[in-house]
Amino acid sequence: MEPIPIEYSRGETKFVSDNLETDLTLFDFWSWAFSDVLTNTTRGILAEFIVASALDLNTRKPRDGWAKFDLEYRNYGIEIKSCSYHQRWFQKQMSNISFNISTSRALDAKTNQLEEQSRRQAEIYVFCLLAEKEREQVNPLNLDQWKFWIIDTQFLNQRKRSQSSITYNSLIKEVGDPIGFHRIKCSIDGLIENMHNHRLHSEP
Questions:
Q1: Could you tell me which residues are beta bridge partners of residue 72?
Q2: What are the residue boundaries of the structural domains of the chain, listed by start?
């Protein structure tokens, strides 16, 4: 059977019963299920939305949770990773910041088969850190609390240290200081131009 297309839904869409609309809306479900934007799973999706918005992508095209990479921009795949110093649960101390950069076997939705080769699927990685350190002040919806690193995947592939994760200290040492929300688009545009030029000069 063919994959079922993902359709864009509006919050006011109502549940139905016996072919009649009920008082329950999709917005009610979203508020119930996803109000906790600090918890790891939802925060990761929120980070994808933040980067998509910074890139002026069409966010009315629904997120595909089974895609090879999180976002596509100018025909380049982008992988989004998120971390936070604070978690929803009790902590004795703030979390150590470490982003997962492991390779993966992509799922082909048309065949429901995994690719044979494990690799990094996207050409660009964006590491998103919810950087607020004051626990009482942390707010994932405050874009000023987020910091970002934009990295060419080839940098990770050629990295001599860990191929499974990269820490905050390693990012600072190997990449440099993070940027803010309003610089995401120009930074990714600049990286794409550099990648494009490099490929042109590398062609025989």
A1: 77
A2: 36-202
